[in-house]
Design brief:
The protein contains ten helices and ten strands. It is an alpha/beta fold. The protein has a single domain, classed as 3-Layer(aba) Sandwich (Rossmann fold). Strand 9 and strand 10 form a beta hairpin. Helix 3 crosses helix 4 and helix 8 packs parallel to helix 9. The longest helix is centred in the N-terminal third of the chain and has 17 residues. It is found in: Cytoplasm. It comes from Hymenobacter nitidus. It catalyses: adenosine(1618) in 23S rRNA + S-adenosyl-L-methionine = N(6)-methyladenosine(1618) in 23S rRNA + S-adenosyl-L-homocysteine + H(+).
Length: 324
Amino acid sequence: MIPQSSPEPSAEKASLHPRNRHQGRYDFAALVKTSPELAPFVAPLTHEGGESSIDFANPAAVKALNQALLKHFYHIQRWDIPAGYLAPPIPGRADYVHYLADLLAETNGGVVPTGKRVRVLDVGVGANCIYPIIGHREYGWRFVGSDVDPVAVRVAKQIVAGNPGLSGAIDIRLQPTSLDIFSGIVKSSELFDLTMCNPPFHASAAEAEAANRRKTQNLGTGKAAPNFGGQSNELWYEGGEATFTWRMAEESALQRHNGLWFSTLISKKETLPGLYKTLQKRGAVDVRTIGMSQGQKVSRLVAWTFLDAEQREQWRQKRWPAAS
């Protein structure tokens, strides 16, 4: 098994997926018009030609921006998260969804399958519920979101219940065991066309705090908001992302008949060789490493499947022969 990869984007080629709605700088005038609650946080930046922005180091401002983006682009009227929980950069989250859609399109004649027959598992959905919101609004997919944090599960359920169209399309489940990833969530008869995950990247609370300080110091203006805040389970895991993704790869092999494509974001290049080795050992037949970029931030996702081309075609015929 040789991992297939797209070149990691450079700073000179810093662009979002072509279908991503968040190209270019934020249009704060339009966002304020949609969500007036954002207005108090927007101020002109005289050193950048008078363009407006917010203070990305202010968690209230970041949350207000996310609320405005979700309302403006995805028609989410009610979205809130508790203090200290992860407020993710929505453009980057949308990129992950769109690149996964491309993987499904490969098995569907180049057309992204849409509608409720496509099911996605978001491991670690968080209180913000961002991936299911974007995936359902963009493609009509159904989601299961899992999390080990009871507060995150409760808040995500409130977001789903508070927005017409999300109820019935997004199921939020509590992961009862912190070490498990798919076990305890995926039922024996359940099938998922995709699984996705933004894993805890750091190996300790101290490492997570140091990274957050660096991020705050390096903030640009008019660009995507950082992953501001975050509970311990959102930011760090004993052994870091290498241990977490190793466990995910091991469990995915046990669920090989329940999923078409498994995937995760990877923050550190150093994690990749170990993950590739585990996937090869467990019999993954196709592994993709897809580079993504947003402003100066470069990231990557790794996706893998245990199904060969013929089995993927059989999956398509069974799951979404006429998905629309």
